[in-house]
Write a structure and sequence with these properties.
By secondary structure, this protein is an alpha/beta fold. It contains two helices and six strands. Helix content is 18%, strand content 30%.
């Protein structure tokens, strides 16, 4: 009887270990406050967390936990404007904020004047969290 129980438990363990588990958070929609960076803060032209060169006028964003290279749809909850952004950096590092958009993204979402806005972030495609090594061409 003990051998059968052991085999049964071992079989359950093997089956559970083969099942897929979520790679990231179970939610793919987030709500919070977004700010922007890149205008006059020295980040333009610098490397982002995924190894790309930051373009203040590009359409990218920083998030603390969404995997790098993820594609997200960001909606400005105050005016309804939406854009697709690539998560290529980490941040924001100010309490109460969940996203730091590039200056270009903030312009398209129309919140440059306010500095921050309420946003909805929907993950469209989970990224691979990889670092893009720059070539020396």
């Amino acid at each position: 009887m003990k051998v059968n129980s052991f085999i049964y438990l071992l079989l359950i363990y093997v089956l559970l270990s083969c099942s897929s588990s979520p790679r990231y958070a179970s939610s793919s929609v987030y709500y919070g406050v977004s700010s922007f960076y890149g205008l006059n803060d020295g980040f333009d032209g610098q490397l982002t967390a995924n190894g790309e060169i930051f373009d203040k006028d590009g359409l990218s964003a920083a998030h603390k936990t969404i995997p790098l290279n993820s594609e997200v749809e960001v909606t400005n909850m105050e005016n309804g404007r939406k854009i697709k952004l690539k998560i290529n950096d980490r941040g924001p590092f100010i309490d109460g904020r969940i996203l730091d958009c590039s200056y270009g993204a903030a312009k398209r979402l129309d919140f440059v004047q306010q500095g921050t806005t309420s946003v909805r972030i929907k993950v469209i495609k989970w990224g691979d969290n990889s670092y893009k090594k720059q070539s020396n061409d």
